[in-house]
Amino acid sequence: MEFAQRLQAMQANVFADMDQAKAKARASGKEIIDLSLGSSDLPVSKHVIATIEASLHDKSTHGYLLFHGTQAFRQAAATWYTKKYGIPVDPETEVLPLIGSQEGTAHLPLAILNPGDFALLQDPGYPSHAGGVYFANGQIYRMPLLAENHFLPVFEDIPTPVLTQARMMVLSYPHNPTSALAPLSFFEEAVAFCRQHDLVLVHDFPYADLVFPEQKEKNFNPSSLAPSILQADPDKEVSIELFSLSKSYNMGGFRIGYAVGNSQLIAALRQVKAMIDFNQYRGILNGAIAALQGSQDIVESTVATFRKRRDVFVQALNRIGWKVSMPPATMYVWAKLPETWEHNCVEFCSQLVAQTGVAASPGAGFGKAGEGYVRFALVWEPEILETAVERIAWFLRC
Predict the structure, then answer these.
(1) Please, which of 26, 37, 242, 383 could form a disulfide with 101 given CB 3.0 to 4.6 Å?
(2) Mean pLDDT, the chain cut into blocks of 10 residues (398 residues total)
(3) Which is nearest to 382 in space by CA: 289, 285, 304, 295?
(4) Residue 318: its pLDDT value, please?
């Protein structure tokens, strides 16, 4: 049996290999502390659950949900966005519900790229960004994110022949996996660059709220450190942004997010989406409306929880001699490996889980520039994170 050639580019999957390594460690009797997956362990707000539960008993929510049936959600999303970032948004033409922001990054290349066109992606970057380009038969130019450049791409380094064939650029800040932030001035530079070269600018923005100021400030607004791309492109000339409720509202398993931005891009993505899927169950959208319109205490609590976990984990790593800086955002720690392991992050992670049960994500799984790093997801209580570091210390001494 023969399959499409596009699958060849997706055969190597470090995360599938790590999943197998975790399974082997578990089968050998190891107690697994899984720090490899960014799936929040925190609960959804009670009022969101109550809204979804009430929807289950309403038979009018049980049928297919087409675009016009999502109007209430689109209005809530537009209002939330305008209140947070000060950018007017038309819920009819500039908002589209998504099955998580990952759906948007996977489907947008189908609407933008012709076969052979280039997409400019971050390296390291989130794997689904590349997957969508492969499905569209596009080419990828990976923009290296280096520590000396604060994990921001250098646009001037992109070769001219690539730019002549490029159609889109994908950015994501706060950044997974490096936890880096990008200032508004960088986004302004990115928008100007994309205007100059006729590129669509896609911004994946799931960690909009998971930002930690150096000093905990009362009434802190995350947008001061994690701006929206539309603040640099308020007329929405070239940009589209993807927001997910997975991180801010702990709704990862509900698969709910939305795209906001240029109306032509929204319409094109809607065309693709209409051929592939309907929308989620209406009750999930009702729950998302409750999350966006209701008390935002859950967001503040989530940020405070991950701030505490970050502090505990990073301080513990530094105590055992693994020098790691405090990440300014997200739910991850991006740690440069000790010298003895700096050229083989996959082997480090494989041996770590096999010998200790602690699972981490090898940096190479996010791109070539990720080699020499590992990513830890802070999805356990502080006491468990302390235990994980104790096991890591034992492993490093062996």
Answers:
(1) 242
(2) 81 74 91 93 96 96 94 98 96 96 93 97 94 94 97 98 98 98 97 98 97 74 87 98 96 96 98 90 97 96 97 98 96 95 91 96 94 97 98 93
(3) 304
(4) 97
CB-based burial, 56-87: b 16+ in 10 Å, e otherwise: eeeeebeeebeeebbeebbbbbbebbeebbeb
pLDDT score recorded for residue 217: 63
| 269 & 139 share domain | yes
The answer to whether 18 touches 349, Cβ cutoff 8 Å, is yes
Distance CA 236, CA 312 (A): 41
Query: How many angstroms separate the Cα of 250 from the Cα of each of 73, 111, 223, 253?
Result: 18, 29, 19, 8
Range of the domain at 75: 46-293
| C-alpha to C-alpha distance for 326 and 333, rounded to whole angstroms | 8
Q: Between β-strands 166-171 and 239-244, what pairing exists: parallel, antiparallel or unpaired?
A: unpaired
The closest alpha carbon to 209, from 302, 284, 271, 286, belongs to 302
- Give the number of other Cβ atoms within 10 Å of residue 192's Cβ: 14
Instruction: Say if CB 244 and CB 208 are below 8 A apart.
Output: no
User: In CATH, what number is assigned to the domain containing residue 32?
Assistant: 3.90.1150.10
Edge to edge, what strands does the sheet with 166-171 contain?
95-98, 257-261, 239-244, 200-204, 166-171, 118-123, 139-144
CA distance linking residue 210 with residue 397, whole number of Å: 34
3-state DSSP assignment of residue 324: coil
**What's the whole-model pTM score?**
0.95
**pLDDT reported for residue 218:** 62
pLDDT of residue 302: 96
Dihedrals phi, psi of 20, to nearest 5 degrees: -65, -40
Looking at 265, 293, 321, which one is the last position of a domain? 293
Same structural domain, 53 and 23: no
Domain count, the chain: 2
pLDDT at res. 11: 66
Torsion of CA 20, 22, 23, 25, to 10 degrees: 120
45 Rama class: left (phi>0) / alpha (psi -120 to 50) / beta: beta
Query: Please, is 307 exposed, middle or buried when counting C-beta atoms within 10 Å of its C-beta (0-12, 13-18, 19+)?
Result: middle
- On the question of a cis peptide bond just before residue 328, with omega within 30 degrees of 0, the verdict is no
